[in-house]
Amino acid sequence: MIDPVLLAGAGVVLLALHGWAVAGTRTLLGDDVTVRSGCRTARARIDAYGTVVLPTILAIAGLVPLGWTPAVPAEPPTADGATRRTLVTAAAGLAVPGLALLGASTLGAPTEITRAAVALLVLRAVPLPGTDAGAVLGVVLPDTAAARWRTWTRRLPPVVPAGLVTAALAVPAVEALLPG
After folding, report:
1. Distance of CA 28 to CAs 20, 21, 23, 66, Å?
2. Phi first, then psi: what are they for 27, rounded to 5°?
3. How many whole angstroms from its chain centre is CA 57?
4. What pLDDT tens digit does each residue of the chain (180 aa) get?
5. Are 130 and 68 in contact (CB under 8 A)?
6. Model-level pTM?
7. Sign, Cα dihedral of 56, 16, 91, 154
């Protein structure tokens, strides 16, 4: 039986660690926008609804605790070294759930931690607005397509990718509850 409290806790901790990894990596790579905007503080990396409430509700419902942290401001994609910073930052963002998954499976951690790590890794690896893979698309696509992608992604809140992935992951859970 999955413990919803442990699942929610693992989801919230992983989301916060992901946000701090992204902000810290950008700062280490010389993008001072994160420092000037105050995004390295604990309070700035937690969105009450997206980082705490939504993952907790999903976990209690027996679903994967997906959510989001506030967007980390960054230099414009045309700034010197922005492409490299974006790629390294995306790798750091994906490393958090990847390392959590590796550690959880190696150390025999509870299933809830593994589920939360897999969910965050899948969410961040899907090239949608607000994800690490989505940020990579914004710098590797040809200039015209990249500009369109960045314009489109600025218009959508982070709830859109979280909602899409949550819906996709919820389908099997809902089907298992149906008779027949």
Report:
1. 12, 10, 9, 27
2. -65, -45
3. 17
4. 678 788 778 888 888 888 788 888 888 888 777 667 666 554 555 677 777 787 788 778 777 777 776 666 666 666 677 788 889 989 998 999 889 988 888 888 888 788 888 888 887 887 877 778 888 888 888 888 888 887 877 776 655 555 555 555 555 555 555 554
5. yes
6. 0.73
7. positive
